[in-house]
Design brief:
Number of helices: 13
Low-confidence stretches: 407-430
Order of helices and strands: EHEHHEEHEHEEHEHHEHHEHEEEHEHEE
Strand order of the largest sheet: 3-2-1-4-5-6-7-8
Number of strands: 16
Helix content: 25-40%
Shape: globular
Bound molecules: nicotinamide-adenine-dinucleotide
């Protein structure tokens, strides 16, 4: 089999590698010539893909900017970005550009799968007609399915292979083709009756996290006002073995899914004159959370007798979650920008993020960063940084509960799933 992957980012590159590991030939297409050149040199830019693996599988992976190469593929999987516009509406331009590209080279008998997150109905309403401009008919001359990406970058337990893969085919035959494709790289494939069910299931997954993050972050503000340790509250609630799922407070949501996907649902709802009030409310709380963090930081400076203006504030961790270098939608960017607007001298240390061009900053070595600041703020707790040691050297605002071990609070026992069930996820960082 030859598998074409369009978009070689956090989703597409690990997928390309998985197919190559299973012995398939892969044609990876990306518009970004710099990324393609890096891949050809065997250099990975995605944490979950070691360069050594890339080099070992190089004979089976062809990275190119030429869409025409997809014509030789049995299946084409589209993994391009689906971000938001500045007004928080779906920005479908990259996806539609990719779909037009695929339509231009579509061959009879090919399977086209969308992994990019989209609104319910888009595969059928928007993607299918463009592909059919090729003169080929979906479900007859070519197959079409939606199968959402469910990756969690930096995670080693639920890999692509170990995470059940949802598939919604346009027709039963389309679903059959997609199931055969993914059975190659996933242990479990879950068929649903239509692309719409799979599209909406993905949005439900992201929205579930967004709503729960908003809930715990809102309670964190109240707990702070009442001088109650919210982390101890969450620890306590998490001892209940049923009916509760742990989400930890944090500086606000980030990444490519949780801050973005719920807006795809509310946008579609508006078209149907339906207000998704739960989603809007969660979005509002989540967007406010970095502002609340800035208030906490300025309060801490005040307690040190310092104004925000001219104070030296060092952010520890600017990626949106620990262990990765992805800064998209990261709360740290918003916090840093607000602090800069208030006149603070902001620096940061992040072993995964060498520079933040949008803020004109580069990562400072940890020792130097600590020596040169009035206050350190733990925004993202990367495991490689000893936050307890930092808190002994400099005043710290801890937005992740990373220094709590010093308080000798009893941790609840780790829950494990009975045989045959999926183990509970570790704490969700909000
Ligand atoms: N990153 C995640 O954790 C995650 C998780 C689940 C779902 N998703 C979804 O998966 C999709 C891809 O996300 P990602 O994080 O991999 O994005 P990414 O930005 O890491 O990678 C996308 C790649 O697509 C390329 N690209 C853009 N337009 C293209 C085009 N027209 N043709 C070919 N290549 C093109 C870009 O250059 C980039 O390399 C999005 O819809 C996202 O919402 C992402």
């Amino acid at each position: 089999m030859t598998v074409g992957i369009m978009g070689l980012g956090y989703v597409g590159l690990p997928l390309a590698l998985s197919f190559a590991e299973s012995g398939e030939r892969v044609v990876g297409v990306d518009l970004n010539a710099r990324r393609v050149a890096q891949l050809r040199r065997g250099e990975s830019y995605v944490e979950d893909v070691p360069s050594a693996c890339l080099r070992a599988l190089a004979p089976r992976i062809e990275a190119t900017t030429r869409i025409a190469k997809l014509a030789i593929c049995d299946a084409v999987v589209i993994c391009v970005p689906t971000p938001l516009t500045p007004n928080h509406e779906p920005d479908l331009a990259p996806l539609m550009s990719a779909v037009h590209g695929v339509a231009g080279v579509l061959q009879p008998g090919q399977l086209v799968v969308l992994e990019s997150t989209i609104y319910p109905g888009m595969t059928r309403e928007r993607v299918r007609p463009v592909l059919e401009e090729s003169g080929l008919v979906a479900g007859e001359d070519f197959h079409l399915a939606f199968s959402p990406a469910r990756i969690d970058p930096g995670r080693s337990d639920y890999t692509l292979r170990a995470t059940p893969k949802l598939i919604g085919g346009l027709t039963p035959a389309c679903g059959d083709r997609a199931e055969t494709l993914y059975a190659d790289v996933c242990e479990k494939v879950v068929r649903v009756s239509s692309p719409e069910v799979a599209e909406m299931a993905k949005l439900l997954e992201s929205t579930f996290r967004s709503v729960n993050m908003a809930l715990v972050n809102e309670l964190a503000v109240l707990a702070d006002r009442m001088a109650i340790d919210i982390y101890e509250v969450v620890d306590a609630a998490a001892t209940k073995p049923f009916g509760f799922m742990r989400f930890d407070p944090g500086p606000g949501m980030g990444g490519q899914s949780v801050p973005v996907d719920p807006f795809y649902v509310s946008w579609k709802g508006r078209e149907l004159e339906f207000a998704t009030e739960f989603i809007e409310l969660a979005g509002k709380v989540n967007q406010q959370t970095p502002y609340v963090c800035v208030e906490r930081i300025e309060r801490a400076l005040n307690e040190l007798g310092l104004p925000a203006r001219s104070s030296r504030v060092c952010l520890l961790g600017v990626a949106y979650k620990s262990g990765v270098g992805d800064t998209r939608e990261s709360a740290a960017i918003s916090i840093a920008r607000r602090l800069q607007e208030h006149g603070a001298v902001v620096s940061y240390h992040d072993p995964h993020v060498p520079e933040l061009p949008s803020l004109g900053l580069v990562s400072t070595p940890l020792d130097e960063a600590i020596r040169g600041c009035d206050l350190a703020v733990i925004v993202t707790a990367h495991p490689s940084v000893d936050h307890l040691a930092v808190s002994r050297q400099v005043p710290v605002v801890d937005l992740r509960g990373a220094t709590r071990a010093s308080r000798a609070v009893a941790r609840p026992p780790v829950r494990t799933a009975p045989a045959g069930q999926i183990a509970p996820r570790p704490a969700e960082a909000a």
